Amino acid sequence: MRQVTNPPYPYDRYSAEYVGEPPPTKLEVFEETSTKKIITKAFASDWEGGFRYTVNCYRGCVHGCTYCFARQYHEYLGYGAGTDFETKIVVKPNAPRLLREELKRTRDRMPHLDFSFATDPYLPLEAEYKLTRQCLEVCAEFRVPVAIITKSPLVTRDLDVLKRLSKVSVFFSLPFLTKERSNPFEPYTPVPEARFRAMKTLSDAGIATGIGIAPVIPGYNESDIPGLLERAKECGARRAFMSMLHIDTDSIEQFFVQKMNERLPETRVRKIINTMHRERGGSLRHRSFAERSIGRTEQWDVTVKLFEFHAKRLGFKQHERPVVEDTPAEPAQQSLF
Length: 337
Ligand code: SF4
Known about the structure:
This protein is of the alpha/beta class.
């Protein structure tokens, strides 16, 4: 087979090396203009107040992480949770206008907004649509605190807007230390090192950054935890959280197992499945919401202790979820408020 190379455009400041080749299926993009609301109130028992408020300018995610719990939301649209989730992307062009309208009514009750949940806020499409960017501008205008979770260095494009937010934290989802280890589970994401470089760029600019080691896949990436925390520390991250793989639906389970079988040796697949079964009581799926992000064996306790030991050693503030921090105001802004 002929090898086709594609050297990056040398003058593109935001180009990033991706873990694998693009999905073989054609990408389809749909614009949804009938959306009435852009802030979603989502149940989150471990969140302050029991709920989190999220903004998603897109549905579906070309990053294609096989473990992604958001795959199930594509089924609400009549699409599949497998390759449809990665190749049929819905764009919400009205998102910034809707956000402004909703914040006019709800600003006083809004603790903070999360940019993540049903998609990555910095999909490659965001480079063109700039919807996340425009929504962040609205948040800056209304002085709403923001937490962002992403796998993409494209977030550095919006550094100027991030600096104008009253409070902000940017967490990079980084469960694997190398491209090779990431590839079987995150085939179309920017490579881990590109995420670390973006983390450093934001940290150096004074933005609070963190690392989310999520998911920890029992029997696969526990050994990456010390190295991930050390690399994040070098890149200026101050906060860290981790959580165990959770698979919410049958369709996600089928897809997850199928992709493991395609991309990993049989012995490794067996090890992951057996370890997961021990953590989940004979299944890949959790039995209750309370068990969603944690395991139940002594082995999981060892993993938690490993994380806590290295997080403490490196001076991280640990959290079960992303939190927002004050943004150092620039001199020009201080006069405005
Ligand atoms: S980047 Fe996030 S939203 Fe996108 S597929 Fe991966 S886990 Fe899901």
